[in-house]
User: Fold these one by one.
Assistant:
Number 1:
Amino acid sequence: MHSDPAAASATVSAAAPVVLIEAATRIYNSGENEVRAMDGINLSIGRGEFLTLVGPSGSGKSTLLHCIGCLDAPTSGRVFIDGRDVTTGLSAAERGEVRNAKIGFIFQSFNLIPVLTAYENIEFALQIHGGQTAAQMRARTLEVLSLLGLESQKDRRPNQLSGGQQQRVAIGRALVKKPALVLADEPTANLDRKTSDDLIALMRQMNEQLGITFVFSTHDEHLMRHARRIVRLSDGRIVGDEANQTPSAAHG
Ligand SMILES: Nc1ncnc2c1ncn2[C@@H]1O[C@H](COP(=O)(O)OP(=O)(O)O)[C@@H](O)[C@H]1O
Ligand SMILES: [Mg+2]
């Protein structure tokens, strides 16, 4: 996939892949109908990748992202996050701990908490995560606000922020606990073209600056051009996996 050695060394370290999926199948039983939402998925995602899952509605993008995100588990097969098997012998609570420690999410409508300021929305993710002193959480939250150019907006609530600024807060919240992986399931589905492009560009900038792995899904052929790797799904199977040598530029 990364045939260009320079690109490979920049994006993939020698360590275990961030995500490794082996022969994963997810079967839903709705009445007498059996749906194979994932059907024999094998996928390895290296550290620092910027990958998009594309495919029509119903092709299994969300199911795969939920399994990667430890929100669901395959019916058979295995999922490893950062080398740890999150499928075999793990309770839902233990899976939740892995999710909390390793994974940040960007939601479709951002899901910011309306009564909290930008600062508080980001710091809240650290409070849930636990394990840090108040001073550490404050320093880290301010660092992320600065990284995203939000210092002067830090005391505003979501309804006092532009759409683009709300996106930045949502990305900040996903990044603040230094996750190994950030997942976004059709994050631009409710946005216009320009705002969508800006969101993906900002995700890519964070990917390049911080080396955090991003996986997002879209059914929008235009948006996938921003990704460095494009994995295509159809009927729960991977039907394409291409490196994108010339992703659309991130905004400067
Ligand atoms: N909770 C569920 N119960 C039954 N079928 C489901 C459920 N979730 C998804 N599916 C089915 O699994 C298939 C894949 O769905 P999904 O992963 O949501 O695809 P996508 O995100 O690409 O639209 C579809 O046929 C969908 O109807
Ligand atoms: Mg979906």
Number 2:
Amino acid sequence: MSDVAYALSMEHISKSFGPVQALKDVTFSARRGTVHALCGENGAGKSTLMKVLSGVYKEDAGRILVDGVVQEFAAPGQAIEAGISMLYQELDLAEDMTVYENVFLGREIMSSIPFKTDVQAMIDRTRALCVHYNFAIDPEALIRDLTLGQCQIVELLKALMRSATIIVMDEPTSSLSEGEAENLFKVVRALRQRGLTIIYISHRMEEVMALSDDLSILRDGEVVHSDRTSQMSVDDVVRHMVGRELKDFYPARNVALGAVCFEADGLASDEGIHDVSFTVHKGEVVGMAGLVGAGRTETARAIFGVQPLTQGSIRFKGETLRIKRPEQAIGRGIALLTEDRKRTGICTNLPCSWNMTLPNYERLGMKRLLNLSRERSLCEALGKRVRVKWSEPDAPASSLSGGNQQKVLIARWLMADTEFIIFDEPTRGIDVGAKKEIYTIINELAAAGKAQLLISSELPELFGVCDRILVMRRGTLVGDFITKETTPEQVMHIAAVEA
Ligand SMILES: Nc1ncnc2c1ncn2[C@@H]1O[C@H](COP(=O)(O)OP(=O)(O)OP(=O)(O)O)[C@@H](O)[C@H]1O
Ligand SMILES: [Mg+2]
């Protein structure tokens, strides 16, 4: 095969951030009109490699060829000119603007009247592209009114409007519902059909195997394997990613349940939940299944005091609680790991250590004076426990890979030493090795008598980890099963089917 059959080649790319070498002599090529998957653990270097490709970072060494021609990207604009567009792991749209305004942001079509944009032309061209690709999106809708899946389509529209030929998708499905993800797969296949090259990053092995033609695996900044996907099994990929076999993915747990710890009775809020009642015992892990929009996150928000209860009550360790603000929930011993890391979880411009200790000062007896050495040693110990990859605890959270940011947030709640922990999609964007570590932590917390609620869209995870599984639909509970006595099919059916 001649070089030019490759839409893209990256050769001998190296990149360091201070003492951290994120990429070591990485070489990989993507064939035109294919989906090329990039796999690897959190921090392996996938996003960094793609940021080098899109001109966000300048490589220390190596070169990039597009259609066999060497390219220099000193800034993102140059990569875009060369036909490369990147859909970031964290979406990046102007929320108060419309779809078409975002699509044409910085590249507006001007009208014949000086200094005036041709709004109609921009709307028409956006609509034409939507029709061409069968996207159900109104060009005049505001971004803030769109679902995450639709926002992703807007990012794609931006790329397509700039005539991108290589599109990078960094964990595009990590916050999509199953239906939205299915839709995205159709779009990806349609793009490939039209000769575009897609670089696809995901931690979800099933979709990587189903969608990609070729697959490259990064480990610790190096390409350790690259082949046709059809030549590999999931086990092969995982072995290359983590450098060992992963046995007992869902570690066994044998914990006798204690007294009732948490009781929700008839909860309702203005975010659309009503009549939500359930209990969680000490040592118990209760799962919560449901489709996107079923009210699971809203239930967590109501319990945690983010959204006030309009009805119902909460009993915690035998006492009725009136929680009006998250601080009160934390003070009482309730924690919430939020699903939306970027908006409601991590402060990326603050050090990791601060991200861990912020809600915990009072608990740590550090209300007036911060004991820095105590803070540091705590952070180091907890960082080790969740195996976060950082240069040091004081590194800004923004310097961590997405999955490692999630581990910092988990460490935050381990530090808080709370008695009831709500995990909302805790393994989103987390690699397989780290997932297993999180399941182990959940087991340890259960053994220590903590009560836990695990909200997850991944049924295998709920079945692998939980004692009981609650099912939500349209804002209320429609099922409560002992895990051993039900099946994924039954849970899925109840979550999806109207009564
Ligand atoms: N701006 C930065 N400053 C310092 N270190 C960085 C920066 N960006 C990335 N790194 C480091 O480079 C390494 C690779 O990170 P990268 O984000 O590429 O990982 P990833 O494979 O995309 O992981 P994930 O699956 O968690 O998204 C990590 O050790 C990370 O901490
Ligand atoms: Mg990444």
